[in-house]
Amino acid sequence: MDSNSRGKEGREEPEAELGCCGCVLMGVSIFILIIFFPFSLICSLKIVQEYERAVIFRLGRVLSGGAKGPGLFFLMPCVDTFRCVDMRTFSYDIPPQEILSRDSVTVAVDAVIYARIFDATMSIINVENAHASTKLLAATTLRNVLGTKALSDILSERESIAHQMQSILDHATDPWGVKVERVEVKDVRLPVQMQRAMAAEAEANRDARAKVILADGEMKASRSLKEAADIMSQSPAAMQIRYLQTLNSIAAERNSTIIFPLPIDMLGGLMKK
């Protein structure tokens, strides 16, 4: 069952009888309407816009049939009054709230809510000011919801927090004829000391990962050098080719002195002698 259906069920009540005084006042109103016609007719005709609804009170009682509009409607002089209600979606900025999180960290959080009135009659007779009441309730709900969350959850689970707040607000404002359509957490501001601590922690984590990566690279390089040395030790020709490559590298650097290493076989023979 949607909100509109609940609102209609809430106001389906038989119109109360006017009583003797009410009948007398109705007669006077009709008499005034006839005497001052057509000026009274001009004053009694009211127009509401497409996005508005008019809640009519006759001698303090809401007329049956719900709110009127959009378009033209008629008011009885002296006995009818009306309140015009804007049915468009309205938005509220919840001012920054100082909140103590579950892990004892003080943060300042602000949010914005989007809501609309789905039942004009309920928004008039059930609450004094639907807009102001919704705004105050949103600020209180924001503090209550975030007070149960840790700092890491507040920073990483904004979407789930917004959905939770929307569900709580929508249920609470339903008797007021207000539908909360959307809640967004705008900003989470941390104390300066906490920002510095988190920056230091992030830097330490990055340094630790860099050292791990460097150590892993050195281990792989050492393993590759060992494998290359084992292969070259089994082939003297490969060692000589490596010598020639080293000479080529030295010559490319334009050094003034070039040292030619002796062949490894000659050094081996000298060592034996």
Principal-axes shape call: rod-shaped
Q: How confident is the prediction overall: mean pLDDT? A: 78
CATH architecture of the largest domain: 2-Layer Sandwich
Query: CATH fold name of the largest domain, please?
Result: Tetrahydropterin Synthase, Chain A
* Main sheet specs: 3 strands, antiparallel
Q: How would you explain this protein's 3D organization?
A:
With 273 residues, the chain is an alpha+beta fold. The protein folds into three domains: 16-86, no CATH class; 90-194, Tetrahydropterin Synthase, Chain A; 206-272, no CATH class. It is built from ten helices and eight strands. It has a three-stranded antiparallel sheet. Strands 6-7-8 form a three-stranded antiparallel sheet. It has a two-stranded antiparallel sheet with strand order 1-4. Strand 2 and strand 3 form a beta hairpin. Helix 5 (130-146) crosses helix 7. The termini are far apart. Mean pLDDT is 78; it is low at 3-16.
Q: How do the helices and strands line up, and which of them pair or pack?
A:
Layout: H1 3-10, H2 19-35, H3 39-44, E1 45-48, E2 52-58, E3 61-62, E4 71-74, E5 80-86, E6 90-100, E7 106-117, H4 120-125, H5 130-146, H6 151-156, H7 158-173, E8 178-189, H8 192-233, H9 236-252, H10 264-272
Antiparallel strand pairs: 1-4, 2-3, 2-5, 6-7, 7-8
Family: Belongs to the band 7/mec-2 family.
Main location: membrane
Subcellular location: Membrane
